[in-house]
Amino acid sequence: MTHLHPWFFERPLAHRGYHDVASGRPENSRAAFVAAIEAGFGIELDLQLSSDGQAMVFHDYHLGRLTGEVGAVAPRSAAELGRIQLTGGAEGIPTLVDVLDLVNGRTPLLIELKDQDGALGRNIGLLETATAEALANYQGPVAVMSFNPHSVALLAELLPDVARGLTTCGFTQEDWPLVPQATRERLKDIPDYDRIGCEFISHEVIDLQNQRVIDLKAAGAAVFCWTIRSVRQEAEARLSVDNITFEGYPAAIGG
After folding, report:
1. Number of H helices, E strands in the chain
2. Between vectors from CA 210 to CA 42 and to CA 141, what angle results, nearest 5°?
3. C-alpha–C-alpha distance, residues 70 and 174, integer Å
4. 31 and which of 25, 80, 87, 95 could share a cystine (Cβ 3.0–4.6 Å)?
């Protein structure tokens, strides 16, 4: 039985919302999420943890790239983060609860929990708990994922009826310098998929010909990919995936 709503196969997923700073829509902003809904897209978004245990919709571990502030996200409270304006927009950093209230089931949400351990290890739990609490009464189509299989395993316990998957890639040292080599070598083969009850992976587009990805799809896994940035790249990816996460152009509705 799949928990993935049909919309996850029909609506391209706007990466961090349908963002465009030139139009006043920063990534992971309410404005970007509203734009995605209005355009008929699904939404992919990211979560970080505040100092007071709230799931915040924000991609980076540090504030500098996306706001006028400096320093890490984690030492700030949800209220403090909510007052920090996103660069290029007119709003602060939202909580997951804020975004759930805004979306209200109108489009699918693919939620990625960013690794809080730092090395894709076992030191997790607070963000997963905050996410589960926020989603407890949400009725819209939603799925959760993480690069960290320990995070996804815990989500299986906390949210057994919510579709879950792994965010995956080739796990190169260049992209993952803080992750031990043994961990990277293990994770690139996606060994935890069945053990933690996944229904899908979201795999890096440049690595879609990975034999393990091909084998998982043949065995019935849904395969999404990240991040598509052109019509041509989309056309190529759709030959082997069930849906795409995209940014920077309007993807094709319905594939």
Report:
1. 9, 9
2. 20
3. 24
4. 25
